[in-house]
Fold:
Amino acid sequence: MTNKPTRLFQHPPVGEEVRAIGGVYRVLKELRLPWRGREVLATISAAHFDTSCCNASGCGYAEVAGYIVDWRASADEGVVEPITDPAERDALLELLKKTEHVLEVRFIE
Amino acid sequence: MAGIVSFGAYAPRRRLQRLAVFASIGWHSPAIMMMASGERSMCNWDEDTLTMAVAAARDCLTGQDKAKVDAVFLAGTTLPFADRQNAGIVAAALNLAESDLRTADFTASQKAGTSALLAALDAVQGGGRKNVLVTAGDHRRTKAGSFYELWFGDGAASLLIGGDDVIAEFVGAHTISCDFTPHYRGALNKFDYTWEERWVRDEGYGKIIPAAIGALLKKLGLAIGDIAKFAYPCFITAEHRAISKKLGLGRDQLVDNLHEKLGETGAAHPLVLLISALETAKPGDRIVVAGFGQGCDALCFQVTERIKNLAPRQGVAGSLANRVVEETYPKFMSFNDLLETESGIRGEAPTQTAMTTLWRKRKMILGLVGGRCTKCGTAQFPKSDVCVNPACNAFHSQEDHEFVDQPAFIKAFTGDLLAVCPEPPAVYGMIQFEKGGRMMADFTDCELHKLKVGQPVKMAFRKKVHDATRGFTGYFWKAIPQAAAKPQGGA
Amino acid sequence: MATGIRDKVVILGMGCTKFGERWDCGAEELMVEAFEECIADAGITKNEIQAAWLGTFAEEVSIGKSALTLPLTLRLPRIPVSRVENFCATGTEAFRGACYAVAAGIYDICLAMGVEKLKDTGYGGLPSFGSNAGTLNWLWWPNLTAPGAFALLASGYEAKHGISEADLKKAMAHVSMKSHANGALNPKAHLRKPITIDQALSAPPVAHPLGLFDCCGVSDGAACAIVTTPEIARKLGRKDLVSVKALQLSLSNGEEMAFNEWDYDHFVTTDRAATEAYKEAGIKDPRKELSMMEVHDCFSITELIVMEDLHISPPGGAVKDILDGFYDRTGGLPCQIDGGLKCFGHPIGASGLRMIYEVYLQLQNRAGERQLKNPRLGLTHNLGGFPFMNVTAISIVGRHGE
Structure:
């Protein structure tokens, strides 16, 4: 354990379609990524913009919640330590782009 | 005294890893594993021979007075227009004065680059021209999974030829012209039709280059040992070395063919190699450069003291250093039209360019020339009949104002997944020129997640319109974000 | 001396179609659907309409040129009809034409119709005009879309006000959440589904930093209004009249895109149009006096910034007001009561009139589950074009004589 700040993380409803007026997205999976001796929690999602205001498009994207401190602290929540170091973020970004083929990687603070 | 006044070069920053090509298509072309090492440069989707030639020419004009340029010779075998002078577009992009400017395209042979160089030297020696800007580039099309795909690279080189202040004096030249045809490309064909490499090697490179260089040295009364560097192309690296043995060159006399780092850049390649030799040359050094194709041009230069004073520039060394690794071979296929990708019905929008509009606005579009109000001094883009400064609004008050080299920074930016783009997201934003003026601009050669408001940008001449139906390529200027961030917010 | 539009024109009737992917309708059928509701509401006959204005934006993909589709469809008795187009302000422009004709005393009763049929293109979204967008624009404008051009506001706004992207995204998520909650109560909305803040924050990027829930979509739809003078309305037996208090328009003059003063952080035209509209309507403190607003929420960032340009939130203060719930249905100044563009989509020609329709219903206590308590003045706002070059239209509608 480190003494860096942690926060609760809500496990997303994997597989459920979320519909907006411009398109739809779905969480494909929660990824427990071994990383520098610990485990990082990332959500991999995909989107299709089928009724947006300008053109059809879509993408895959990752949201990095942080280092897993407690995978399931309660029924639907876990505890994570957010990743804030820019160099670490860059390295994870490159890795996730390569291994998960996502277009954007976001870090949740 | 005619010679080289300045030089410049350009290579696209993407370096396609040859092993990645093999990994993708080696199942089809197992033989290319022999070549599957090192990297080659590849054009971004908004680059072509012309944009690279302009980039090299701008590099060449670093620290030079472009008003003195009175001719532009463009060389390449992959120029975008079969009939519309391509050198004229280069001249417009450089915003050179139109009156008493000579422009010419040199094409249809791999020795077009050295032939343009020779023509420039002749023009200066004959007194007809004082400063000829030679720029050469190639973006050669190859079939997927071919050796040529791995041998070739994309790039450009430029030399300013003049009579004063030369950094390398022209000593002499010898040309062999013969219809030796290693490959040909019919007027309406997309790809070269290539003959057996062993014949090209033995009867072509192996005989014609040594013959031309030998004749040149004999003509000049020089021996191999009098020459510091020999720069000649040959994408078969073993043969490149074999020729040097045949000529009897010492280890340090041969200029590397750049196969490992760049690939062969077609008609530009002899000039690329010459520049790479000049970048490390000392005053007094003699350099022989040769261009091969339907014979061979061999030229000899001698470096002068002035090379020490040449302003710093990107050149070949800088172009090689500015690189990003590209391992996605289908990207190369897509950018080179080897893969029919889906762009949706929205991508079917009309793409016609009005020649009348382009003619009226040629300085704005091709030269990024805006206006500067003579009443209030406000620089603005585009130039218009009414000054944009609300405190002025003067009519007909603006003179031409070049924006290309003005320092600028990112005012606001986005990466847009909905804009039709060969490689989403389309990155663009508002850029602001420090001394006045701003514009909405496409960004290129950048990564969205690294952008910041305030970051400096440089302008680049790029393909803007690709009108496949009519065979027309349109050009405009885009912003390339630079590494160092400007220490201020957007406000 | 010009005196403005205040209380010179009243709305006699309005109609609005269900918005959505109306595979069953062309522009003609949509106009009929809106018109039947409107004429019944107005309590007049079709032949009493003396002049009409038709607003539609992308005529290339629906009705073609001229205003003829309107009289041909409704079989109007050879009266004057004009077609107007002014980007997203198109619907409000049609309304403005009809109101001005009545206010000028040229005609007694006029019709404003806004319609857009976008779902006959074969793909999602507005048409791309390519080189038809203007021969010179084609040669130099960046390859931009509306979401991208508006997304740029985020970086400009963050830099100007020192607000972090994370905070801005939270406020934008709240904007969406609030509109979806409202839209869920509206039977005419295209999308009727509440969303959570987390769903908005976890949405995919569309144009950095705008996510999927920050962007509107396209729909088909039509809305219309019949306007007349207060005197005629009273003669027709109407009570509790709804009158037009202000109609303002402001267009960019190129300074934003070419003169280095604007910081890509707000809408210069909205600021000006708001000042003029409040003056025309006699409003001194819009934050207190307005009862509701329907603003152009094409993108969440637009709605956020517009709250400042309409002089409701102080500069840099919209994030706080939004997060405080000030613009929620139960807040100090409810915004997008009907669900806005986020839930209606954006049939461009119809949107402005759709907004006025909601204010009209609210002022007459006819808004069903969405009904606000005792609304007196409502503002509608359209923003067409791009932040660096745009058209703002504002209308203020309220109880006549108050």
